[in-house]
């Protein structure tokens, strides 16, 4: 029975892997940002700073999942209208999704900046960890709106079937971003440690 199902759907496996593979890899890219933050802070700073980064990344990922989940609704709608060759509707869907996602991003920024910053004192962390976590969370909160805007265009491209291009854009940006974070982190810690 399984052999019959396998042979029946065998031609579709390759197409699905080609389409879904870059999507999976790009999701790993979102996680790589936080892993790189932990590596950089772990190399140049102490345990309290690393604990603060871990705490903030956990809180940030909760809001990121909410924002990304809302943006995922665009992909099947774009794929459906693109399949019908209804390109005007694709444009309308992108415009409406962009508006919804900007509003969502602003809401998530408010939740991160005002809600989480006021709750972080009551999560049972040491005062030193909280002191390091608050400014980092404030900086990450600013990034949620541009990230959600990028995610809107990424989901639009994936809905059109350009999954590889969306993944490549994400990964080509990762290298310079981590490179800059590493060098700025190294200089900041050296500057701070030498009392300059």
Give structural notes.
The protein is mostly helical and 196 residues long. Helices cover 89% and strands 0% of the residues. It starts with a helix and ends with a helix. The C terminus is likely disordered.
Jot down its keywords.
196 residues, mainly alpha, globular
Blueprint of the fold:
Layout: H1 2-44, H2 47-71, H3 74-83, H4 87-119, H5 127-159, H6 163-193
Helix pairs in contact: 1-2, 1-6, 2-4, 2-5, 3-4, 3-5, 4-5, 5-6
**N→C terminal distance:** 72 Å
Average pLDDT number? 79
**What proportion of the residues is helical, as a percent range?**
over 70%
SSE ordering: HHHHHH
Largest sheet: none
Number of helices: 6
- The overall strand count is 0
Cα-atom Rg, whole angstroms? 20 Å
Unreliable segments (pLDDT under 50, ≥5 consecutive)? 189-196
Shape: globular
Strand residue content: under 5%
Helix- and strand-based class?
Answer: mainly alpha
